[in-house]
Protein 1
Amino acid sequence: MRIHIHRLVASVAVVMLAAQCGPSQRVTSSWTDPNYRSGKPYKKVFIVALTNRQNARMVIEDALAATAVAQGIQAVKSHDVFKPSFTQETTPSREAMMAKVKELGCDLIFTTTLVERRSEARYVPGSVYAPFPGYGYRFRGYYNYWYPFIYDPGYYTTDRRYSMEGTLFEADSESMIWSVQTESYNPESLERFSTEMAQVMMERAVRDLRMR
């Protein structure tokens, strides 16, 4: 039986490409206050990305707000209310933030922050030897088979893992009612990372807290 090695390699490549194009976020843990009572009529959430990177803060808050709205919850982004960047001089005090939260009629506060960032180097080997499916062929066939493997050396790459935490507080009591941690593996861009994180976190919050 002849083995169509080229077709096999192509199939594996398609599977790997599909995996790379899939969601890069996954929930690693979540917690719900055991005293929390489901079914509360939450209507508006105040969203805060705790980072001093202005662009990241805006992109993450925009993604979280869009996902909250898609789940039927009104959203207010902190960068629409306070200065876009959090520095030691511009970060609002807790009193100032809570005053604005209550003024805007928000009954929930959603914060998200980077918990851990890891970089790991690994070696990706080049093409592996596989039995040639047609010994006895002429040189042309033999050469054409092995030619692609000659210029396919291994290489080193760096994998990036980001652990994020999302937390929900009730505005009235300032009590933490829910928290989740997610892990992202080699995100392609800040925009895709933020969109996927927002969807994973918000959908998990709605499910865990039975907010709908």
Note: The CA atoms of residues 46 and 196 lie 19 Å apart.
Protein 2
Amino acid sequence: PETISQGVANPGTLAVDLADFGDARAAAVMAGRFVRLGPRVTTSYYAPREEAYMVRLGPFTTVPQAEAALHRALQAGAAGARIVVE
């Protein structure tokens, strides 16, 4: 028989995802548009494409920090910004 066990959730850290790109140059341009917010460009190898370049703010350790960064990003014009768990 199959045994199932449940552990404590480990949510990781929070970040604000501004946008995702398949091209590193496009990600750098986006990061440059929001340079005053302190974005970083990171890659993910779990993406359906070969590489995905994500422009993100953070990481943040609390929900209020992430929400404040999301608010700043939206006010700066990042219409598609959202909070993600890394």
Note: Residues 15 and 59 are 5 Å apart (CA to CA).
Protein 3
Amino acid sequence: MINKPLLTFEKYHDLGGTVSEPDFEKLESDAEDVINPLINFFYLHKDIDTDKDEERVWLVQKAITLQIDFTSRLGSSTPDEMTKNDVKSVSIDGTSVSTDTSPLDSTTDGIYNVALEYLYRSGLLFRGVPSC
């Protein structure tokens, strides 16, 4: 179970993923590398295919799908690569272009903010005591 991916290409495609199959495996693995620590490796010893909480499974797999598509569009699938490719200003032959935002403004610790919203909804990010 430890080496089993959380998302198959078929499920990814069903969830609206747009990356081609040859690119999927690396991007899925990189997405898991940033999401697993955040969800406290919940599916490390629990099989995602037998988890009875279908909403949680859908939310986690949708978050991975969103992360894959975001990093594919960005051309960087790890936080390291994202930082290296974060360009806010370019200057060529005396002409310069600067922007106030970059793709990294849409991430938190390398995780696409929209994917993060799905993970919040899954309940796997909660670390405290519920208030009554």
Note: The chain is about 45% helix and 10% strand.
